[in-house]
Design brief:
The structure holds two protein chains of two kinds. Chain A is an all-alpha fold. Chain A folds into two domains: 14-43; 44-332, Formate dehydrogenase/DMSO reductase fold, CATH 1.20.1630.10. Chain A contains 15 helices and no strands. In chain A, helix 1 packs across helix 15 (338-361), helix 3 (46-58) crosses helix 13 (300-322) and helix 11 (271-291) runs antiparallel to helix 13. Chain A is globular. In chain B, 36% of the residues lie in helices and 14% in strands. Chain B contains eight helices and nine strands. Chain B has helices spanning 18-26, 65-69, 95-99, 123-127, 133-137, 148-161, 206-213, 216-258; strands spanning 4-9, 44-49, 52-56, 75-77, 83-85, 106-107, 116-117, 143-147, 181-184. The radius of gyration of chain B is 30 Å and the shape is elongated. Classes of the chains: A mainly alpha, B alpha+beta. At the A-B interface, helix 1, helix 2, helix 4, helix 7 and helix 8 of A face helix 2, helix 3, strand 6, helix 7 and helix 8 of B.
């Protein structure tokens, strides 16, 4: 019997899984206080801020590409549709699993189905995410059915794929912006550099931007670790649209700061001001400037680095809104506990593993040939 | 039953803690007196300035933030005034804790099945026609229970009849749309610390998110129409393109045949 090769990454992953399982056991047998640094003064921390608020945004690429291919009929983007949908499906699944860790009464997570409060933004987010996860599952099911040669089921899905894609775009628009709306209710708690009546708009636009960046990152990671081809032309196209999105985001954010009379705060040396400045530099300004240089835009390395900046900056922005922004009003400080961090790392790692597993056993990265008159052996349209 | 409330006259509070003890006994909570609100202390008395005691408790807002934000509607503003919590509906998302402008809801972080904990103004005793345990226990009348309108009138009378003794402000009359728990004080409120020193708006906080939520049906309808329109236009474009290609091929093959 041949044992699998022991590599550096495999040791790291094994360590993460062991620690993840350990802290999972502690969380469910001893409660939230035993694993996290959450408290009455800081009821939301890394799990809400990263697993949920950031995680949903990072999975935004799926609806953008679905919109591009299914609604705008820009077929050149078909090759990246399946990886994008997979990233989305796994991303939203991880959000749901993350919630099962963070919710105090996680076993009642289904309560929003029977107990309704239409006045609650969180109720709307819960429903949108539930429905969208279903849409993603149905959209990705075509890849699974194809592999299992269940062509009749595939045909059924394909009849409804266009309405499903439209529903996915609407649901995504709603919940990506609603994640921002969650914070509208704390005007006296959230620091003015982040609190704005336009938070829903900011959250939506930044989700679109990071969606493009995540698709690019996912392409490069798949090449590095799974040996898949990169469609450089397509990524270049996404980057060019992203330049417009980021420019728009920067403009409306600056206008909003000026409109609320807090623009001068960006020059302060306060902790919040520095965090805001760094976040904006990494999330928008640096990638924007870099992508305006054609040499960067057309090179694989350039696209990878700018996408990395956008993703890191996005994570920072979401964590700033959820955690940094309420520190001053909370009366205390918060930094996640080791177990808290390990669980998040564990979830992300499982996501990567699931992606690699799917890429290995399913037709996720295939060039699509779509001819209606060809014999049945030619497998799929997307 | 009319809308009830509690009036807390800070000038009359001597910091004896009888209200804290009564609340703890009534709710079978651990009897050690605490300095801050917690999962085991629904009301606390804090010495904010020498001989100036402020009692903290849930404000039982008129338009409560917790009622609005809870995704499963675990909080209810009762007709009689108290804001109560249904622990069985709760999923433990803690949005109520995050959003309460007075930071009242506390959590049982050490429990495997945790619940939110806060004062419920002894809603069951009020229903029976009695009064909350805290107001019943107060020896000086610093905390009194009654109809909210009557308490407001009483507070106004006290301020008017004792010029110089009270600051001319009833805290809770208009803050975040008004609360069922009202305070009057001799010390300016912004010198008393939280929550009085927070610049709370008069607009109830739930209205801040309603402006976003009320747009949802519009987005769904407009989005659906827009996307359908775009899909139809791009579909037609594809069809026309395919048709033109076929026409071109037909013409080419006809020319070939003619040759």
């Amino acid at each position: 019997m041949r044992l699998p090769r022991i590599t550096f990454w495999r040791i790291v992953i094994a360590g993460i899984i062991i620690l993840g399982m350990y802290y999972t056991f502690i969380r469910y047998t001893k409660g939230l206080g035993a694993v996290t640094n959450l408290s009455d003064k800081y009821p939301w921390g890394l799990w809400v801020g990263f697993d949920v608020i950031t995680g949903v945004g990072l999975a935004a690429g799926a609806f953008i590409i679905a919109l591009t291919v299914y609604i705008f009929h820009i077929d050149t983007y078909k090759p990246i549709l399946r990886p994008a949908i997979l990233t989305g499906f796994l991303g939203y699944t991880l959000v749901a699993v993350g919630l099962l860790y963070d919710l105090g009464k996680w076993f009642d997570i289904w309560h929003a189905i029977i107990f309704w409060n239409p006045h609650s933004v969180m109720f709307e987010v819960a429903w949108c995410v539930m429905l969208y996860l279903t849409v993603l599952a149905l959209e990705f099911s075509t890849v699974v059915f194809e592999r299992l040669k269940m062509h009749r089921l595939n045909k059924v899905i394909h009849i409804v794929i266009i309405p499903l894609a439209m529903l996915g775009v609407i649901l995504s628009t709603l919940h990506q912006s609603s994640l921002g709306s969650l914070f509208l209710i704390v005007p006296t708690k959230l620091y003015p550099l982040w609190y704005s009546p336009y938070l829903p708009v900011f959250f939506f636009v930044s989700a679109v931007s990071v969606g493009f960046a995540m698709i690019t990152m996912e392409s490069f990671l798949s090449k590095r670790f799974l040996g898949k081809d990169i469609e450089l032309e397509l990524l270049n196209g996404l980057a060019r649209v992203n330049v417009l999105v980021m420019a728009f985001y920067l403009v409306i954010k600056v206008l909003d700061l000026a409109n609320r009379g807090v623009l001068s705060d960006i020059f302060s040396t306060r902790y919040e001001s520095i965090m805001f400045d760094v976040e904006t530099l990494i999330q928008v300004i640096i990638p924007l400037v870099l992508l305006l240089v054609p040499a960067v835009r057309t090179s694989a390395k350039g696209l990878f680095i700018t996408s990395l900046f956008i993703v890191v900056g996005f994570v920072m922005n979401r964590l700033d809104v959820t955690i940094t922004g309420i520190e001053a009003s909370s009366g205390t400080q918060y930094f996640p506990a080791f177990g808290e961090i390990m669980i998040s790392v564990f979830l992300v790692t499982m996501g990567f593993l699931a992606f690699a597993f799917a890429a290995k056993y399913l037709n996720v990265f295939v060039h699509v040939e779509h001819e209606k008159d060809e014999p049945v052996e030619i497998i799929h349209d997307v | 039953m009319a809308k009830m409330g509690i009036l807390i006259d800070i000038t009359k509070c001597i910091g004896c803690g009888a209200c804290e003890k009564a609340c703890k006994m009534r709710n079978d909570l651990p009897t050690n007196l605490e300095t801050n609100l917690s999962a085991t202390a629904y009301t606390v008395v804090q010495e904010r300035l020498p001989n100036t005691y402020v009692r903290r408790m849930c404000m039982h807002c008129e338009n409560p933030t917790c009622v609005s934000v809870c995704p499963v509607g675990a909080f209810t503003k009762t007709k009689a005034g108290p804001v109560i919590y249904d622990k069985d509906k709760c999923i433990g998302c803690r949005y109520c804790m995050y959003s309460c402008p007075f930071s009242i809801p506390k959590y049982q972080w050490d429990r495997v099945i945790p619940y939110v904990q806060k004062c419920y103004m002894c809603a069951d005793r009020i229903e029976e026609g009695s009064e909350p345990a805290c107001t019943a226990a107060c020896p000086t009348g610093a905390s009194i229970f009654g109809e909210r309108d009557a308490l407001i009138h009483e507070a106004q009378m006290r301020i008017k009849d004792n010029p110089g003794r009270y600051v001319d402000h009833i805290y809770g009359l208009n803050e975040v749309g008004g609360t069922s728990v009202l305070y009057i004080s001799s010390v300016p409120f912004d010198k008393l610390g939280p929550p009085f020193n927070i610049n709370l708006p008069e607009k109830p906080l739930p209205l801040y998110t309603w402006t976003a939520l009320e747009k949802v049906p519009t987005i769904v309808i407009v989005g659906g129409v827009l996307l359908s329109g775009i899909w139809w236009i791009t579909s037609r474009r594809e069809e026309v393109k395919k048709f033109e290609i076929k026409q071109k091929e037909k013409k080419l093959s006809e020319r070939e045949d003619k040759k």
